Automatic annotation (TrEMBL):
Residues 24-358 form the UDP-N-acetylglucosamine 2-epimerase domain. It comes from the Archaea. This is UDP-N-acetylglucosamine 2-epimerase (Non-hydrolyzing). The lineage of its organism: Archaea, Candidatus Iainarchaeota, Candidatus Iainarchaeia, Candidatus Iainarchaeales, Candidatus Iainarchaeaceae. InterPro entries: UDP_GlcNAc_Epimerase_2_dom, WecB-like. It holds the Pfam family Epimerase_2.
């Protein structure tokens, strides 16, 4: 009987990072591969755009689960457990640090099924972040620990999280960007927005610890108003919701240098970000992506689970307006200096390495 591998995902970053692995496994006749979509992300339609852009193979099971963190995880675990039992799953795979990952890990644990954690070993060492708990718990359950960097592997060794061994694979984001940059060149987003390469910055902000605090958003608005650059902001639904709740959305819209746009597909975002002067973001994935297309990221957080980019492709500013504004000059001056610095997240063969291990071991 073929080994049955179930891949669990629920957010746009997971779609981006897992599509190559899913494609490889789905095309391998030696295994049966099913894809479970939890429905975690705020808007299924946002995810559908990414699925279509990246030609994600067919979703086999859509759980359609939303709600609070507690409700999400509880429902996901129950549904994934049922799927594992009914379909005799041998290995459960998940990537990253979301509620979907935690649920997949717990479901595997309760059914005594092997769990494979892609992007294992990342640590911010900030217990206030729900993602940190998701990482640590998932790593402790994991049988296959696929570490994206040497630092991540060391974190796993220190915490003794390596039941089935640690494999240094690189990060799957590298091949995702490399593979799709050429396609992204065909995007007409710059023409539609009347933008010139290198003459604008891109902003993203969506994390709970950032946008759910009024003071943080006030500091962001203060900083943006002092940055002498046109800034393009594909606004996340969660961020828009919180800005409205805090009565700050109109103030943000009043900034003359800021252009708020609807969320865009992956190719459009790659075209936007890779042609920008620099990025401002609270996203972990963007820190990784920017190191592939050689752009500087002002990381608007107190810490990062991707310290590999610090001192080269980015810096931490926290949420303080003064520090964010101060970082802009360094971001602008980075132009051309990053081109020959190697990406710290691997060579673009992570999915191949992971697929080989899942199929053969």
């Amino acid at each position: 009987m073929k080994k049955h591998i179930a891949i669990v995902l629920g957010t746009r970053p997971e779609i981006i990072k897992l599509v190559e692995l899913i494609t490889r496994l789905k095309s391998d006749d030696r295994v049966k591969t099913t894809v479970i979509f939890t429905g975690q992300h705020y808007d299924y339609n946002l995810c559908q755009v990414f699925m279509d852009d990246l030609k994600l193979p067919k979703i086999d099971k859509n759980l359609g689960i939303s709600g609070t963190r507690k409700e999400q995880v509880k429902k996901m675990v129950s549904n994934i457990i049922s799927f594992i039992k009914e379909n005799k799953v041998d290995v459960v795979v998940a990537e990253g640090d979301t509620n979907s990952v935690l649920a997949a890990a717990l479901a595997a644990y309760y059914t005594k099924t092997k769990f494979a954690h892609v992007e294992a070993g990342l640590r911010s060492f900030d217990s206030r972040m729900p993602e940190e708990w998701n990482r640590v718990l998932s790593d402790n359950i994991s049988f296959y620990s696929f570490a994206p960097t040497e630092l991540a592997a060391k974190n796993l060794q220190k915490s003794k999280c390596y039941k089935g061994g640690i494999v240094l694979t690189g990060n799957t984001i590298v091949e995702a960007v490399q593979k799709n940059l050429e396609q992204a060149k065909k995007s007409e987003i710059l023409d539609k927005l009347n933008l010139q390469p290198g003459k604008y910055a891109v902003l993203t902000a969506h994390r709970q610890e950032y946008v759910d605090t009024k003071e943080n958003l006030e500091q962001l608005i203060k900083a943006l108003g002092r940055i002498d650059f046109e800034i393009i902001f594909p606004i996340h639904p969660r961020t828009e919701k919180m800005l409205k709740e805090f009565n700050l959305l109109e103030k943000l819209k009043g900034l003359k240098n800021l252009r708020i746009i609807e969320p865009v597909g992956y190719f459009d975002f790659l075209k936007l970000s890779s042609n920008s002067a620099f990025l401002l973001s609270d996203s972990g994935g963007i820190q990784e992506e920017a190191s592939v297309y050689k752009r500087y990221v002002i990381v608007m957080r107190d810490n990062t689970e991707r310290p590999e980019i610090l001192g080269t492709f980015g810096e931490l500013t926290g949420y303080n307006a003064e520090k964010i504004v101060d970082a802009v000059s360094r971001a602008v001056n980075s132009k051309g200096k990053l081109d020959n610095i190697p990406c710290p997240f691997g060579d673009g063969k992570a999915s191949e390495r992971i697929a080989n291990i899942l199929v053969e071991k």
